[in-house]
Amino acid sequence: MMLKTTAFLFFLLLAAGIHAETRDLGHGIQLQGQFVQGGMVTGTAPAAVTVQFQNRTLPRASDGLFVLGFNRDDPPEQQLVLIDAKGDRQSVLFSIRQRAYDVQKVNGVPPRTVNPDPKDMARIERETAQVAQAREAVSTLPFFSKGFRWPVKGPVSGVYGSQRIFNGEPRSPHFGVDLAVPAGTPIFAPADGVITLAEKDLFFSGGTIILDHGMGINSGYLHMSKLLVKKGDKVKQGQKIGLVGSSGRATGPHLCWRLNWYQSRLDPQLVTVTPKP
Ligand SMILES: [Zn+2]
């Protein structure tokens, strides 16, 4: 079952032409995925071994599968900590590739969203905590293991990792892929999951959904004009979850699609299995 799941995922990644690499780290640890900033990697380990990565104990599926991901600026040296039944710890090192990111200038966003006033700042802090909490809500089912489809089809207008300059002022990097499609375009769940956040009006991201795909993997949908699900809903791959809009810090209608491992930002274009839109 375990081998079947990972072999299937590997097949999907190959089918999409995405370079998925397999690494044997010894100690019964096999990893498979994109060993690069923004990449997602699945793995298997002996059942008796607890696996930790970046100070988290990794949830394990019933077949032993675990998953982890690399943030935008994660360093090249990475390690797994293995803890055996006696409590003995051992570090296993591996490396990931570093990326160079573009600079993207975005002009014409509402000035209030570039330089928020103190009242807005208090709201932003509340909402940031709420979103971070939703990314910690983790199902133990490996919904992600069947792969991801594109939630909408349309031209890519913003890529993962870009340094953003809003109305001439540098701000946080971009952590998703932007798909430019008309307002009202339906958004389809890219994989099965559980809705852990559904908010109509967040300060930066407007209408926002977070979808838990299990074991730390979650996805986000921003700037939506309409939400068709609520917190706690279970959704299936291909189910309509909302409509594209331009709410929040946006210049026009598009879907900003995010993928995360807990709080780490992954690149949806690295892990999406259907052809590019
Ligand atoms: Zn975006």
What would your notes on this structure say?
With 277 residues, the chain is mainly beta. The protein has two domains: 2-95, Immunoglobulin-like; 103-271, Glucose Permease (Domain IIA) (Distorted Sandwich), CATH 2.70.70.10. The chain has three helices and 22 strands. The chain has helices at residues 2-15, 118-134, 268-271; strands at 21-26, 29-33, 40-44, 50-53, 56-57, 66-69, 77-83, 89-95, 103-106, 156-158, 163-166, 169-171, 176-179, 186-188, 193-202, 206-212, 217-224, 226-227, 234-235, 240-243, 255-261, 264-266. The strands form five sheets. Strands 10, 13, 15, 16, 17, 19, 21 and 22 form an eight-stranded antiparallel sheet that branches. Strand 15 and strand 16 form a beta hairpin. Mean pLDDT is 91; it is low at 13-17. The site of zinc ion has 5 residues, from strand 13. Residues 158, 174, 176, 178, 256 line the site of zinc ion (ZN).
Keywords, separated by commas or semicolons:
Immunoglobulin-like, 2 domains, binds zinc ion, Glucose Permease (Domain IIA), eight-stranded antiparallel beta sheet, mainly beta
For this structure, what is the CATH class of the largest domain? Mainly Beta
Low-confidence runs of at least 5 consecutive residues: 13-17
Structural class: mainly beta
Distance between the termini: 32 Å
Architecture blueprint of SSEs:
Elements: H1 2-15, E1 21-26, E2 29-33, E3 40-44, E4 50-53, E5 56-57, E6 66-69, E7 77-83, E8 89-95, E9 103-106, H2 118-134, E10 156-158, E11 163-166, E12 169-171, E13 176-179, E14 186-188, E15 193-202, E16 206-212, E17 217-224, E18 226-227, E19 234-235, E20 240-243, E21 255-261, E22 264-266, H3 268-271
Parallel strand pairs: 9-11
Antiparallel strand pairs: 1-2, 2-3, 3-6, 4-5, 4-7, 7-8, 10-13, 11-12, 13-21, 14-20, 15-16, 15-19, 16-17, 17-21, 18-20, 21-22
The protein binds zinc ion (ZN).
Zinc ion binds at residues 158, 174, 176, 178, 256.
